[in-house]
Every structure is written in structure tokens, then in C-alpha cells.
């Protein structure tokens, strides 16, 4: 009887260790980690999107100047110019297009475009899906990090497998899957788990099995 008790005691001491090893193995991600920081993206420029408000100033032609909304179809209408495509362009590119359109009516027009609203096109928004407290799409801001995203969505739910979350990122036409440690970042306060975000990123937060 004593031998049976000893075997049972040893069994219950070994099982938790095996369980911990199994869980640790499941938590290991096969995806490369998202970079914590990167050099400033010199190739990133804000692009105009539906919902933005565009202020146009035409030099020496105040009657042509004004504030004009970008419609859901990505086009805008201003004085003398109708249905001008605006979505997906930088303010400078749109200004050149306005000048080209106005050159039919006035000589050597000079236009300046200022954008208000900061909505941007869908292709540059960051989307958070899965077990976030408030899944949503966020407008990208220069220097945006994973911490900023987590604050905006209110963290993760109690059912989230935070350390199994991934970022889907498209670079040069190829999609990458990058692992992030949301559990360590949000609940553990480990700032080393912070990561950079880029325009168009999709953060996927899966549900825990336990």
C-alpha cells in the first residue's frame, strides 16, 4: 500500500511539469517577431481618402478657393472642377491635378491643398480583429506602435491568447505573418514586447483554448 501511495505522489508531481511543457510548446509561435522599432519610413506619405475635407487655395483666384469634401466614391467637386479623383493621392499630387484642370479656364493656376480630417484610404488603415475589447479600424499615424493600438482598442478580452497574436503585413506585394506578445505587453507591462505598426497592418488576436 505504501508503494502505491509513493507512485501516486510521484505521478501528480510529474503531471504538472508535463502540462506546463505542453502548454509552453503550444504557445511557441513559428512566425518571426514583429520588429520593435525601425528607421523612419521616408517613403510614407499621407494619402487622401473618402471622408477627408480638402481645403484648396488658388493663388489670385479666391472665388475658386474653398473647403471641399471627398465623397465616398473618392472624388471631389470644387468650383469649375467636377468629379476630380482625390482618394489615394497626396495633397501635392491633388494640387497638381487641380492646376491641370483649372488651366482650361485660367492662365498658369497655382493651387495649394491642405487636408483636414485625417481619415485616409482604407488601404492605409490598421485593422484589429478577434479578441480585442473593441475591434475596429484605426487611422494610421506616423510612429504608431502596438501600445498605441492597444490603448485605442481598450486592450484584450479575458478569452484572448495574447501571446499568439500576429500582425499580417504586406511588403512589396508579399504578405508576412509577424508574432507579437500582447499578453506580456498589456497584462505584464513588458515594454520590450512593443512593436512598430505600419499602414495597412491587420492585428489578429485569437481566442485561448484554455
Please provide a written account of the structure.
The protein is an alpha+beta fold and 210 residues long. It has two domains: 53-116, wza like fold, CATH 3.30.1950; 125-210, Outer membrane lipoprotein wza fold like (Roll), CATH 3.10.560. The protein is 25% helix and 23% strand. It contains four helices and ten strands, in the order αββββαβββαββαβ. It has helices at 2-27, 91-102, 146-153, 182-187; strands at 53-58, 66-69, 75-78, 81-85, 111-116, 126-130, 136-138, 166-171, 174-179, 202-205. The protein has a five-stranded mixed beta sheet with strand order 7-6-10-8-9, covered by helices on one side. β8 and β9 (174-179) form a beta hairpin. The model is unreliable at 3-28 (pLDDT under 50). It is found in: Cell outer membrane. Residues 124-204 form the SLBB domain.
From the structure above, extract its key features.
2 domains, 25% helix, alpha+beta, wza like fold, elongated, Outer membrane lipoprotein wza fold like, disordered N terminus
